[in-house]
């Protein structure tokens, strides 16, 4: 199976400018490609993983990545269906550029014959005068074609600024500049960028350069209709200070059975044979959630490192009594307990019965006593037999945490506050 055949099997090519030519390029030797990321927040999120992992996949196949962080386009904003974007101050965007550059580092290598290069479109867009932009770029774009773009057409009645209208020109010029400066022959992105990307291919041709090629990956959607990458707490970020490694792991471990096999094809670097074997094993034992575990472990290790992945796995097991709580770091333990519900206590610790109620595991003191009597209450994975007993400070994990559990799967945390 060729590399392009593998991309097609994984569902990673939704549309391409010329599939025959794409095969010649990607299966015929090493080429330079680019994919862009606009800094519209302080971190990339899991919605960006499709492009990040595809870039890694292309590099592993011998191709050279140009990872573009949009210091210029990030200040403009691609038009949205609903309304005009709020423009962020340049200094804020520049700070985000630096953070995103760091986040991209684990996915590619910057060494070897096909070493990745980080580029910023502000480097060539910033020095360009208005006259240069209008003559060298704007001259090549028929307005009627730009108006035909769905997102622009849908905004005509409510209004769209020239700023957002011109975004397509800036992105197209990026492809031309990277082709001239770095020999870039291919751009890819999400399917929502198809209009911008094909405009760039056409612009390179109009400038007398090329030929160049492009393809787009599908948008990732959930089977239940909700948006991929969103949880009740908001977006799932790649920055560990915004989404903890434990929460990141839990996002993938909770993947719907209807979605997980496709997620594995999109994001995993296991071979087709390995994935088909995993799909079969998951179908035979769905309750074991083998696919979800494989996906969560691989992506957490890729984004946050093997040790954080090990901690997340250990926490998932230990909190339900299948491992040692003592092995968990303070950060991992707090992240896990915060997700379940973390009750803060100042001063002396109350009895276990009181804590069960205060932490929300039971509704009343009577229910706490009944749960303890029936053997269904646990403190740090040890069954509680006396709800009125005092809790020694030696029981505190890392000197400040307790793990309470009711039954097999319902747990909450307690934190002793200063």
Automatic annotation (TrEMBL):
<dbReference type="Pfam" id="PF00579">
    <property type="entry name" value="tRNA-synt_1b"/>
</dbReference>
<keyword id="KW-0547">Nucleotide-binding</keyword>
<feature type="binding site">
    <location>
        <position position="167"/>
    </location>
    <ligand>
        <name>L-tyrosine</name>
    </ligand>
</feature>
<keyword id="KW-0067">ATP-binding</keyword>
<comment type="function">
    <text>Catalyzes the attachment of tyrosine to tRNA(Tyr) in a two-step reaction: tyrosine is first activated by ATP to form Tyr-AMP and then transferred to the acceptor end of tRNA(Tyr).</text>
</comment>
<dbReference type="InterPro" id="IPR054608">
    <property type="entry name" value="SYY-like_C"/>
</dbReference>
<dbReference type="InterPro" id="IPR024088">
    <property type="entry name" value="Tyr-tRNA-ligase_bac-type"/>
</dbReference>
<dbReference type="InterPro" id="IPR002307">
    <property type="entry name" value="Tyr-tRNA-ligase"/>
</dbReference>
<dbReference type="InterPro" id="IPR001412">
    <property type="entry name" value="aa-tRNA-synth_I_CS"/>
</dbReference>
<keyword id="KW-0436">Ligase</keyword>
<keyword id="KW-0963">Cytoplasm</keyword>
<dbReference type="InterPro" id="IPR036986">
    <property type="entry name" value="S4_RNA-bd_sf"/>
</dbReference>
<comment type="subunit">
    <text>Homodimer.</text>
</comment>
<feature type="short sequence motif" description="'HIGH' region">
    <location>
        <begin position="39"/>
        <end position="48"/>
    </location>
</feature>
<feature type="domain" description="Tyrosine--tRNA ligase SYY-like C-terminal">
    <location>
        <begin position="355"/>
        <end position="412"/>
    </location>
</feature>
<keyword id="KW-0030">Aminoacyl-tRNA synthetase</keyword>
<protein>
    <recommendedName>
        <fullName>Tyrosine--tRNA ligase</fullName>
        <ecNumber>6.1.1.1</ecNumber>
    </recommendedName>
</protein>
<dbReference type="InterPro" id="IPR014729">
    <property type="entry name" value="Rossmann-like_a/b/a_fold"/>
</dbReference>
<feature type="binding site">
    <location>
        <position position="171"/>
    </location>
    <ligand>
        <name>L-tyrosine</name>
    </ligand>
</feature>
<dbReference type="GO" id="GO:0004831">
    <property type="term" value="F:tyrosine-tRNA ligase activity"/>
</dbReference>
<dbReference type="InterPro" id="IPR024107">
    <property type="entry name" value="Tyr-tRNA-ligase_bac_1"/>
</dbReference>
<comment type="similarity">
    <text>Belongs to the class-I aminoacyl-tRNA synthetase family. TyrS type 1 subfamily.</text>
</comment>
<dbReference type="InterPro" id="IPR002305">
    <property type="entry name" value="aa-tRNA-synth_Ic"/>
</dbReference>
<feature type="binding site">
    <location>
        <position position="34"/>
    </location>
    <ligand>
        <name>L-tyrosine</name>
    </ligand>
</feature>
<keyword id="KW-0694">RNA-binding</keyword>
<feature type="binding site">
    <location>
        <position position="230"/>
    </location>
    <ligand>
        <name>ATP</name>
    </ligand>
</feature>
<dbReference type="Pfam" id="PF22421">
    <property type="entry name" value="SYY_C-terminal"/>
</dbReference>
<keyword id="KW-0648">Protein biosynthesis</keyword>
<feature type="short sequence motif" description="'KMSKS' region">
    <location>
        <begin position="227"/>
        <end position="231"/>
    </location>
</feature>
């Amino acid at each position: 199976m060729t590399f392009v055949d593998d991309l097609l099997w994984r569902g990673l090519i939704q549309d391409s400018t010329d599939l025959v030519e794409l095969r010649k390029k990607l299966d015929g030797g090493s080429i330079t490609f680019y994919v862009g990321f606009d800094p519209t927040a302080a971190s990339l999120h899991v919605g960006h993983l499709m492009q990040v992992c595809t870039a890694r996949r292309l590099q592993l196949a011998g191709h050279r990545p140009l990872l573009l962080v949009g210091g210029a386009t990030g200040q403009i904003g691609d038009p949205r269906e609903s309304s005009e974007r709020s423009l962020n101050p340049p200094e804020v965007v520049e700070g985000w550029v630096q953070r995103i550059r760091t986040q991209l580092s684990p996915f590619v290598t910057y060494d070897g014959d096909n070493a990745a290069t980080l580029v910023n479109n502000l480097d060539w867009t910033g020095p360009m005068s208005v006259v240069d932009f209008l003559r060298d770029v704007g001259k090549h774009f028929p307005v009627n074609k730009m108006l035909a773009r769905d997102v622009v057409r849908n905004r005509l009645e409510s209004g769209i600024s020239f700023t957002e209208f011109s975004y397509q020109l800036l992105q197209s010029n990026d492809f031309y500049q990277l082709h001239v400066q770095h020999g870039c022959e291919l751009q890819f992105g999400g399917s929502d960028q198809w209009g911008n990307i094909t405009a760039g291919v056409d612009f390179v041709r109009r400038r007398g350069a090329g030929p160049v090629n492009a393809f787009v990956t599908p948008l990732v959607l959930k089977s239940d209709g909700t948006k991929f990458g969103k949880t009740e707490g908001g977006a799932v970020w790649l920055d560990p200070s915004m989404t903890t490694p434990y929460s990141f792991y839990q996002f993938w471990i909770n993947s719907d059975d209807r979605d997980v096999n496709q997620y594995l094809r999109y994001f995993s670097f296991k071979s087709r044979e390995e994935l088909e074997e995993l799909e079969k094993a998951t179908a035979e034992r769905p309750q074991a959630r083998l696919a979800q575990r494989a996906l969560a472990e691989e992506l957490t290790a890729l984004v946050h490192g093997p040790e954080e992945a090990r901690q997340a796995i250990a926490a998932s097991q230990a909190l339900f009594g299948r491992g040692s709580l003592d092995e968990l770091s303070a950060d991992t333990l707090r992240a896990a307990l915060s997700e379940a519900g973390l009750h803060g206590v100042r001063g002396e610790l109350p009895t276990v019965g009181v804590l069960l109620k205060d932490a929300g595991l039971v509704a009343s003191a009577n229910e706490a006593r009944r749960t303890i009597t029936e053997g269904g209450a646990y403190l740090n994975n040890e069954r509680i037999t006396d709800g009125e007993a005092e809790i020694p400070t030696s029981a505190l994990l890392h000197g400040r945490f307790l793990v309470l559990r009711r039954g097999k799967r319902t747990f909450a945390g307690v934190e002793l506050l200063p």
